[in-house]
Amino acid sequence: MQPQSPIRLSAQQACVRFGSLDALGPIDLEVRAGECVVLLGPSGCGKSTLLAALSGLQAVARGVVQADVTGGSAIPGVVFQEPNLMNWATAQDNVALPLALSGVAKAERFERTQRALQRVGLANFATAYPRTLSGGMRMRVALARALITEPSALLLDEPFAAIDELGRRALDDLVLEAKRERELAVLFVTHSVDEAVYLADRILVLSPRPGRIASEIAVPNVARNPAFLTSPAFAEAAAAARHVLSAQLVAA
Amino acid sequence: MNRIDLAPIFAGLFLLTLWEGLTRFFQVPPVILPPPSAIGAALVDRGPLLIPAAGVTMGLALTALAISIGLGTLIALIFARVPLLERSLGPYALVLQATPIVAIAPLVIIWTGIENPRRAILILAVIVAVFPVLTSALAGLKAVDPGLDRLFRLHKASSTQRFLRLELPTAAPFLLAGIKTAAGLSLVGVVVAEFVAGTGATGGLSWRLVEAGNRLETATMFAALFLLALMGLALHAVLSLIEKQLRS
User: Fold this and answer.
1) What does pLDDT average to over chain A?
2) How far is CA B71 from CA B121, B130, B132, in A?
3) Which of residues 109-138 of B touch A (CB under 8 A)?
């Protein structure tokens, strides 16, 4: 990521209110193309709300949120906590859903879907139904579905929390790969400090409700591989993140 | 192919034999309880009369079922879109559902059935059969996965797309369970309505049942009952098969 990369996601003094309750903000945030920003924070601090606001699903009470769309799809790719697949449809029909909704022709849809499934390692499971897939595989389908529209930004809301360690690492690698290859701006919410350090270029720690950015931790720009997990750089960033996070938990 | 369980077949044969033996041994008058052999004979003998009548009743039940499916789904859709309507009309629908159909039948027949008993019978059967469709469709429409719902909103799906790709497939298994109940009820509705209408104008099976009762042809009554049970079972079997197909 170069500093001059275009901004793909931005929030300026964004606030979200639920009735009389201040849920979030004010928040200032920028995620540039090819950058992965991870949000860490106590439960209920508004991490998911921020994601919903950036995807346009949640209106902001004040401020501006923008998913910049120069090139690529106008709608960011979103992965929620659950795979949220249509259990009556095959993996490929699930992946193709966003294309079908926007009226892409069947032949093109099919071709793009096959490629997307291949990328997440599910080429042989195109016609499988979700209930026959493992939890990790279902998440891969959800990830392929989020990327099928070739969005310029990808928002993930604690997506891999329910998945075993190894499966989770593999999914994290898929996210990093997509980020690299497509110059994707990634905003990732997680509870796991290790996952945050592994994925992030920058970690933003949010304060308790109403969530604000309490602290920012930069993670060294080194290759993300199993060796990174045991490196001093990893340990140092993780320790810093844990320190800031526990300060927030005390505040809460 | 599944292995057929022989136990109920043997049990049935045993009970029929017992029935035959006891009625013969105690010389029960056939007007009170005819032996199975006499019922079988009545079925063959009266078949030309009973089977077309069964066809009429089945036709009415299927028509009522079809109307109930369409109407129930439509009302459920309206209720799902306009919750205020559901809130304000729901309790009254419950009143209609809770009132025994036999009690409503004479009124409906006075209003609509004097010159057209077929119409009155259909209306009555629909009144009983529409509720399971309505409630199951409503439950199905409300069972939409909130995450998928967000995804559809994110991608700005039209309401037609939502209905066809999200709501209908979600509701389908619920709806099918409701339709299964409705199928049995529509048959009940038709039979009750035919009874209350008390006219042979539609020529349905329950009219034949009443007629046979008036003539003390007990064996024919049993034969008609047998056909009614058979129709109910057939309806249930067909719907179960569809349900199975849909599941796999």
Assistant:
1) 83
2) 16, 7, 11
3) none
pLDDT attached to residue A145: 93
Residue A188 β-bridge partners: A38, A156
Q: What is the pLDDT of residues B176-188, one digit of tens each?
A: 999 999 999 999 9
Q: What is the pLDDT of residues A22-62, one digit of tens each?
A: 777 788 888 888 888 998 877 777 788 888 888 878 777 77
Domain that holds residue A199: 7-76+153-251
- Determine how β-strand A62-67 pairs with β-strand A7-18: antiparallel
pLDDT given for residue A13 in this prediction: 76
ipTM: 0.85
φ and ψ at residue B176, rounded to 5 degrees:
-65, -40
**Is A97 in the B-facing interface, judged by CB distances under 8 Å?**
yes
Name every chain A residue with its beta carbon within 8 A of the beta carbon of B150.
57, 78, 80, 84
Whether the CB-CB separation of A83 and A157 falls below 8 Å is answered with: no
Residue with tokens 């949220």: A84
pLDDT in tens, B70-108: 999 999 989 988 889 988 988 888 888 888 888 888 888
Return d(Cα B164, Cα A98) in angstroms, integer.
14
Q: Is residue A70 part of a domain?
A: yes
Q: Do A140 and A190 have their domain in common?
A: no
Q: What is the edge-to-edge ordering of all strands in the sheet holding A77-79?
A: A77-79, A153-157, A185-189, A36-40, A202-206, A213-218
Determine contact: B152 vs chain A, CB below 8 A: yes
Q: Which of B149, B155, B158, B246 to mutate to test the interface with A (most CBs of A within 10 A)?
A: B155
Domains in chain B with CATH codes:
49-247 (1.10.3720.10)
Task: Assess contact for B128 and B101: CB atoms under 8 A.
Answer: yes
Evaluate whether A12 touches A28 at the Cβ level (below 8 Å). yes
pLDDT of residue B2: 62
Amino acid letter, residue A74: A
Which two tokens mark B107?
Answer: 């009124």
The answer, yes or no, to whether residue A221 has pLDDT greater than 70, is yes
The sign of the dihedral angle between the CA atoms of B195, B198, B202, B204 is positive
